[in-house]
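fyi for ur records
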Amino acid sequence: MLDKYHRAYKILKQKEFSNDPKQFLHKNQIEEHLTLGGVYEKFHKDKIDWHFVHNVLKICDFDLIEVNKMEKERNKLKDTFPLHDAHKAELQEKIKYIESKLELQNKFLKRASVMLFNDNDTRFSVAMLFKNDFWDKCRLDEVQSQKMCNEIFLSAVHIGVLNACKLAQKQVKVLQDGIIGNITIKALNRFDENRFDTEFDDLEIEYYQSLYVKNPKLKMNNNGFVSRAESV
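which gave:
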């Protein structure tokens, strides 16, 4: 059972941080919190020893508060950047200065990332979080097809367990309540895995498109969403 999970988790690691120790801990520019091996700090504060993570960051001289301030300041300057203005050169210098400081902070962050990646307890806690909170809640040990497990697991991590399970239930034509019960398990195990592998991608893309109606800003991530869906 664990072998099946580990195969799916290996794919997840590649998707989340390219299995690169320097990217194990990272910060996306549009987010104020950190992501550790795919675990977003804001939503999983009690499942990871974030106190330890931040102590490592302190040792490596990374300052998250200062980084967030600098990113906001840089973005503000870029948003108000004039096309023709006497202050254009001055603003360019300010942006360049901020980005040089951010580049230094990024080096500190990568140093901390490698230290955390090399910590066995940290890597184990991340792997177990994904198993307990995503894999097990989808009851994937009971699904026979590795392909189906990969699809549902990675989808659950990206769009949530409830939404991923509803898509899987829609695919195999059972009640779409987002709760994986015996009826859903039997339907999944009777379904052709190659057909599921292809058609589940289409359902994921349809789901992403429904999000754009509610939040048009998300459409800028469409290529990434589609690529993620089709690559599993």
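Residues 12-136 form one domain. thats all i got for now
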